[in-house]
Amino acid sequence: MRSAESMPVERSSHPASRDWSCPSSDVATSQLEEPSLSERQNEVLRLVAKGYTYPEIAKKLFISQKTIQNHVHDILTKLHLRKRYELMRYAIQRGIDRLPE
Prior knowledge:
Elements: H1 25-32, H2 39-49, H3 54-61, H4 65-79, H5 84-93
Helix pairs in contact: 2-4, 2-5, 3-4
């Protein structure tokens, strides 16, 4: 009887047996990159990171509080976060709170 090391490996054509690893490092890299935010979303993120409230941000940017809430919701979705405090932590860890206004 032959040892397992010397036995030939058979390749199956069944979909479940395929190698699903990324064929290109570009794909893996693109999945690790941070999602791009719009210019307005970046403004809102910066102000949230600085601790401004929704009414303060709305007044500063001349838009409604509901629009601010929508921007924050969209930012949270893009960054795969759930709560505003997670967004603040995300921004502070990246130094966004220290950017000039």
